[in-house]
Amino acid sequence: MYHPPAVFRKFLPKMTSKITLEQVSYANPKHRQVLNSxxxxxxxxxxxxxxxxxxxxxxxDFRQWIKLAxxxxxxxxxxxxxxxxxxxxxxxxxxxxxRTATLFHVFIDRGHRGKRLGNTLLLHAEAEVAKHxxxxxxxxxxxxxxxxxxxxxxxxxxxxxxxxxxxxxxEKRISGDR
Length: 178
Prior knowledge:
By secondary structure, the protein is of the alpha+beta class.
């Protein structure tokens, strides 16, 4: 269960229900079943699927999702829950021997957007990256995803480049470089 430090509490939404953040694993059959159901529901909207992972084809295919992003052992995934219902999600690639972690598949359920939950996910991702002694966090975002761009920029991420597919690359230093 996630209990945010006092400094982060101002970013948590004012909600009457309890918010928890839990690590899940695609290797766990029960987690896979829940994630499959949740993600299929979220990505019934092709725009949401495209903004979350442009490599994915519509309709959402859970096996393709796993094959593209979750076949490595160096990936951790967290879900944000309220009343045991998943309302948010993100994953981190923590490659061995590297100093930069990659944040990807950041998503908040449409019914829970506008409540600063994206900030909550980012703060936890940054804490997780620091805990594992990485000093930078990197992410990619499509230029048309204006809400995500605003979130990342307000959280201190700086654009450092673009991919050949025109996704923007953002980075943030988490701790001092060694």
